[in-house]
Amino acid sequence: MYETIALITRYYTAFNAGDIDGMIACLAPDVAHHVNEGQVRIGTAAFGEFCAHMARCYAERLDDLVIMANADGSRAAAEFTVNGTYLASDAGLPEARGQAYRLPAGGFFTVREGRITRIVTYYNLADWVAQVSR
Length: 134
What we know:
It contains four helices and six strands; from the N terminus they run ααββαββββα. The chain is of the alpha+beta class. The chain has one domain (2-133): Nuclear Transport Factor 2, Chain: A (Roll). The chain has a six-stranded mixed sheet. The protein starts with a helix and ends with a helix.
């Protein structure tokens, strides 16, 4: 359990540092990345491409992070607050004008042999759209 909490902490520390390679170092090569909206991405290359796109469109920092894991460390969850700025318009979403937003969010993880094999990210997209549309 404690090793998994440390792994998820490293993953989110890398996220807050904008360190995509550091995030990928926490992942299994065949990681399944389930984003809030859209298709599942499989593998670290697809994950890295997604992160690079997100870095172009959004500047985000996660605060109020709480990480939980089951007893054998195979599953974990994290709750946090996303503090962000919408930098560049993303396809199908409102126009970016540097709008700030703040959202509660969470992540769910499967861990095997010290690597993250599944990530599910959740936030309320309607809330985000309302905030950046003001």
